[in-house]
Amino acid sequence: MSQIVIATHNLGKVREFQSLLEKHHVTVKSLYDINYEEEIEETGVTFEENALIKARAIAERFNVTALADDSGLEIDALGKRPGVYSARFAGEQRSDADNMDKVLIEMAGVEQDHRRARFVCVLAVVDPKGKEIIVRGECEGVILHEKRGNSGFGYDPIFYLPELKKTMAELSKEEKNAISHRANAFKLLEERIDELT
Question: How far apart are CA 109 and CA 121, in angstroms?
């Protein structure tokens, strides 16, 4: 495999994948590089389904190896919600603050022992021959009663890591990259990268 298309318009994500794959001598391209402006509709009910929908769409249409991710937050006390709806938990016109506020309201009566949660990142790679690789990285934590920290994005300020005694939003970029759900998924994908031709 000499080239891979990341099925995203998020250039920050593209740069993350570039840094992961450069030592494997793989050229990384974004959807912009192949002039694909459309949004791929995510109709799956799991992270795995959504990641595969995006990767398959690009692999089949352009006859390339494509990589897509889907990620979000699962909270045990909320029946693993917001899950695949993490980015729009508070509605389509949402913000990170709105999404966090909705979680805090729904978790208001939940005792500390029952606030377990995890960030999930699923990576799916599909090659032109239809070979598929799916890996799932997770990062376990606890939902706080209030926001703490100014770094990161999404739900980071309410996601507490007991072993580090910090929220995700209180970690340095280096600390977060060492333990995050995306970092863990990257490691699993790297172990299988040779399966792709």
Answer: 28
Per annotation, catalytic residue among 69, 70, 127, 156: 70
How far is C-alpha 26 from the geometric centre of its chain's CA atoms?
21
Instruction: Tell me the whole-structure pTM to 2 decimals.
Output: 0.91
> Strand 159-161 and strand 66-75: pairing?
unpaired
70 given a catalytic annotation:
yes
pLDDT tens profile 171-180:
998 898 889 9
**Phi, psi of 121, rounded to the nearest 5 degrees:** -135, 120
Write out residues in the chain with pLDDT < 70, as ranges.
1, 197
**Beta carbons within 8 Å of 38's beta carbon, 6+ residues apart:** none
**What residue type is 165 in one-letter code?**
K
